[in-house]
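User: What would this chain look like folded?
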Amino acid sequence: MAEVSSRALINAGFSDTERAKKFLEAEELANVDPVLIVRMMAHAPDPDQALLLALRLVDRHPEAAEIFRQPDTCLAMVRLLGSSSALGEFLIRCPEALAVVSQAPSKTFRPVGLESLRSAMLDSVGATRTANEHWISSCIGAEARQKLRASYRKALLSLAYRDLGAADPQEILPLVAAELADMAGAVLEGALAIARAEASEQYTSEDVDSVKLSIIGMGKCGARELNYISDVDVIYVHGSTPNLDEDLASAIATVLCGNTARAIMVPGPEPMLWEVDANLRPEGKDGALTRTLSSHEAYYNRWAHSWEFQALLKARAIAGDPELGRSYERMVSPMIWSSSEREGFVESVQSMRRRVSDHIDKEEVPWQIKLGPGGLRDVEFTVQLLQLVHGRVDPEIQVPTTTLAIRAMSEIGYISREDARNFDESYRYLRLLEHRIQLSQLRRTHLMPRVEGAQRVLARAVRGAGDLQATNPEKLLRRWNETKRLVRSLHERIFYRPLLVTSSNLSADQVRLTPESAQARLRALGYLDPKAAMRHIEALTGGVSRRSSLQRQLLPVLLDWFARGVDPDAGLLGFRRLSEALGKSPWFLGMLRDTNAAAERLSHLLSNTRFLTDLLANEPAAAAWLGSNSALAPQTYQSLQQQNASIIQRTKQPEAAIRQIRLVRRREFLRVALADGAGLLNVSQVGEALSNIDGNMIDGILKVLLAADQQKHGVHAIITVIAMGRQGGEEIGYGSDADVLFVQRPVDGTSAQESQEQALRVVTELTSWSNKPLKPAIPAEVKLQVDSDLRPEGRAGMLVRSLDAYAQYYERWVEVWERQALQRARPFAGDAQLAADFIQLIEPVRYGKGLDEGQMKDIRKIKARVESERLPRGADPNRHLKLGRGSLSDIEWLVQFYQLRYAWKHPSLRTPATRKALDAMAGLELISEEEAELLDFTWSLATRIRSAEIITSGRSSDVLPRSARDMEAVARWCGYEANQGPALEEDYLRATRHSRAIFEQLFYGFED
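Assistant: Here's the prediction, encoded as structure tokens.
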């Protein structure tokens, strides 16, 4: 047998040449050509490890020596053994796995299909179909787990063998990741079969078979881009046949989930595969392990956070009942793609990415492949944000796999071709690094090795089969750092860029203004981005049309007016958007030229509130109202109802009618905001107008839904809606919910049950249709959330009750806090006579008697608890507009406290409106005129600030702004002069200090 020189061993990459020589001379390798094996070792990432494992493998299984006698199989095997000590150990302990590596892999990667993988896993545990077509294994316990895990590792061995045998591992990486995800789904199918067999020892086999369970893959598994070793994120959804009790079905499903995870995770002779992580389920660790489809839907409709919809982008049924899984996918899909319409969505995604970065161990940051700056998560977050923002209107980009999403967005134009190519190549390279690091010991890690020897192994591991190009740790780290810098640059440019881009069709030759002089002037006026401003000006004024000529006349004045606002750049951009939306409409520019008030109002709005700019862009004809005070006057409730009646009469499809009704609300919402911004309405008038708009929408939707239900089920119920809370007092702002009670009464000749069932169906639909996403969507709509939590027994109570049921409840069980809530009840929508009867019913409840000492003590205790528990953690009580010291809550509780005490004998106190009640309290000398005036001022200012925050930013907030820029914008809306943001802050803090002192004295009885 020929000897191998030390030089040959060094050239092959061995670190310990003496040990290598000793191993090559071992008796176990006597029939293997040492020259061949050393030559092949040059292809192994870690030749020392590969030779040691080869020796041990042949020692344990002499037949394995044949693999090392043939050049092609020898090369493939040493690449495998030099890349993964864990798979080498598996071969040693599982001799039947040698069949997997007995033939050399093709340099052209050929993936194994999902059905083949699933069949292998199910066959390993002898799974058969049940009567309800579920898989159930023929073995359980440790035996079943051993067989299943061995089958999985054979599949993993096969994949790694083919992966390492490919000439271009970066090119095939998406196929490898997809097969890994399919393997995870297949093994979960086998684990579920074991779980059913084990559950059948705890419950009857018939009951177990009656439970349907679907496993939803999330994260990389759901996207079919899984790592070699990664937690597999899942969500469980279950159902059952109609004959099985729901509680029993839930209990069995929970056992199935637990047993499935155990089959994958519990220690055993064949180690655990990976962790099954169900923490992305509704309510996380605190939530039920599995839910029904309807329970999932209810949670996502009402409680889910924006990040949960981002996570659901990857959701895919991977195991269990296929039809239930598809139903889940269909259920969440519209929610995912409308989630970007949620308030603050983009900001929440951006802040979540920053939080991920902030929570990385500082020592790990420089070595993070996944979470650090320029890592995989930067690519994924960028792609997902763009998908969620634009996917609602472009189904082509509604794909969960990152590489496919990059390609789709490039083809449509959301990412440039160059950016897409760089993103794709960088992502594949980073994933390849991650794969090779994890493959070594089959351990979950995302860190670049810090030891030079490990870096050298990784540098060799990322090469393709047959590639002997020299590499070293320095080259590896250089390319990695270059990739990180490129990814970070792309991430920051794309992830944080404005999402709405306006472009011009004009060429540079058509520009008439001098760029240098225009930019100089814009900079002097306070524009932060003169170049961008110039682009807008060029787009507006270029050309020789009459429209361009009018723009050139208007812009010098408008630019000055924009500059007086908080954000001149936004003002100019908004004007361009509005101009383009109106196209060639002759009246718009003519109105601005001829009506000074309209132009000034528009400039003020566009430069101080992007929110109204967006509304105007979607209702551009509304700009015509700015030229006329009468056009800005809010429409009466009767006029709004006439519009509803016309819509309902001409629109036969309920969804289409509801969409038109909600469009009316958006339009009238804008009218009120424009009138408010023009100074034509006070706080009370704004609240009354907005409440009329909300009530009209609810009334219209109720009529549509009730008519549709009556057509299907017959006429059984009369329904009315009672406004509560600030909605009842007609004191709402631009982002307020609608607190309501639902009341029903049977139609003559109809049973109480039929009436209740019809009313429940209708009001359930009503709460959904008032704010659910529509197709096509209504851009810039401020959706109305209908909240019925003030009903008897709160959330645990019936959603709708009959008038008689309310009477019985209020007679027997009404609590003092419910009497307090009823102070603000008023008719809102639906049947007027039933509403009047309900108001008559509650008159003695809310006004029929005063408060005894015990009841006054109870109210004070409730208020103290609200102050201590409802104020958000970390919130400054001096700056919270709703629950803070001396703010809205204090004033409203004080008013309602006095109404409960004295309204029974003073009819002037019987009003749902806070400001009217304050006037009455002063008139009755229950409080002084000075106290009433200060409380009224504070209440009005806090209400005005809350509305200003949503108008100026588009986001609802209950906290006084801390940012000087945000405070300035709020101050402008509240009528303060320029640069008076600090004055507004001082006024508010001073007013609430005095208000709190009055409250404590009059409510708690505290003295100064």
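Residues 495-514 have pLDDT under 50 and may be disordered. If you want, I can go into more detail on any region.
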